[in-house]
Amino acid sequence: MGLGPITTGFAVAGALLAGLCAHAQADDAEQMFKDKTISLVVGHEPGTGFDLYARTLARHMPRHVPGKPAMLVQNMVGASGLSAFNWLGNVAPKDGTAFAIVAFTVPFEPLLGNASARFDASKYGWIGNMDSSVSICGVSKASGVTSFAEVMNREIMVGGTGSSGPLSQSPTALRSLLGARIKLVEGYKGSASVKLAIERGELDGVCGISLSTVRTQYRDIFESGQLKLLLQLGPEPHPDLKDVPHVYEFAKSDEDRQVFDLLFGAQGLGRSFVAPPGVQPERLQALRKAFMATMGDPELIAEAQKVGLDLRPQSGEDVQAFIARVYAAPKQAAERARNAVKR
Questions:
Q1: Which of 266, 288, 322 is the last residue of a domain?
Q2: pTM higher than 0.90 for the full model?
Q3: Does residue 276 fall inside a structural domain?
């Protein structure tokens, strides 16, 4: 039985209205970003892996954003990215013209008891992740250490940035949860400063640094064999590191794995970009769509391959879902994780 003329009229009117709304949203995004400059804030020092990824993205993403705005990268160093994340939530414009990249540890600082982290990262607008990767612990050849098993009996000295940074949290957690003999020396500005200290013999190594940074910023000492990888930290083992043990091998219970998810699994968010809370949904969606289009852009892919940047992208929706899941973790697991990174 066919539709009557009145029903058909409603259907046609509904379709026209939906089309007009979609067109209006597209026009809104186009006008919103046209002739604008989008600020891409890096919560870390120039020359770090976060900085390299941000600047690479900024060279290509504007072509895919409605209105083709300019994109300006700015470094906002402080508290291992926490300053930039707080700025994003409290000061940055909420119209889609500002977003940031910070260390994967920062969004979870409220769960780890950091009183300076007054936010709920699940309320922010996650745009996407350029590299769902792993981090590693590594030592210099000069240290004489050749395996992570040795670190359970022999002390190594590694460099960190601050309490909310992965270079500080990762070794602290490994010392607390596994009994690893790791001495942490803090105060370094970032991974570039730590590398110089390793080369000068001031440090034995680094823990919590991303594999992508090892392959770019640390490439010379890695490819020459001067840097030995001891342990993988991340949600799952990396296929290129089959001979390097994975931290989840040390988990003995479901609760252990929940704790590891918060402290180590979150490292899969390695190069995630985030907008402030409160950005209008259609504008956030425009940025997410542009981000994923950029990840498939042949020019970006060619540049990433040339400089050695790993690309294992995740959509903003997937990142948002992971953040929400971690925030919903059982209180007991979150408490263990908090205790694991206490000094």
A1: 266
A2: no
A3: yes
CA–CA dist 329, 263 (Å, integer): 12
User: Between 18 and 84, where is the model more confident?
Assistant: 84
C-alpha separations of 342 from 163, 173, 338 in Å: 9, 8, 6
With beta carbons less than 8 A apart as the criterion, state whether 117 and 314 touch.
no
CA distance 343 to 336: 14
> CA–CA separation, 38 vs 324, rounded Å?
26
Higher per-residue confidence, 69 vs 22: 69
Block residue for tokens 């994780």: 337
- Can you read off the two tokens belonging to residue 118? 């007054």
Note the pLDDT tens digit of each residue in 280-308: 999 999 999 999 999 999 999 999 999 88
Please, which pLDDT band fits residue 17 given cuts at 50, 70 and 90? Answer: low
Which among 266, 282, 306 is the end of a domain?
266
242 and 155 within one domain: yes
Is it the case that residue 20 has pLDDT exceeding 80? no
The CATH number covering residue 233 comes to 3.40.190.10
Cβ atoms of residues 49 and 214 within 8 Å: no
Query: Taking the CB of residue 252, how many other CB atoms lie within 10 A of it?
Result: 7
Same domain for 156 and 251?
A: yes
The reply to whether 140 and 127 lie within a common domain is no
**270 alpha-carbon distance from chain centroid:** 3
Contact 294/61 with Cβ under 8 angstroms?
yes
Note the pLDDT of residue 161.
87
User: Are residues 128 and 204 located together in one domain of the fold?
Assistant: no
Domain holding 329, by residue range, is 11-132+269-340
Q: Tell me the sheet residues that pair with 140.
A: 227
**Cβ distance 139 to 207 under 8 Å?**
no
The backbone torsions φ and ψ at residue 273, rounded to the nearest 5 degrees and listed phi first, read -115, 140
**Pair 124, 88: CB distance under 8 Å:** yes
- The answer to whether position 6 is within a domain reads no
Q: Are 175 and 148 in contact, with CB atoms under 8 Å apart? A: no
Amino acid found at 10: F
Question: Which DSSP string do the residues of 106-166 spell out, in sequence order?
Answer: GGGGGGGT-TT--S-GGGSEEEEESB---EEEEEEGGG----HHHHTTS-EEEE---TTSH
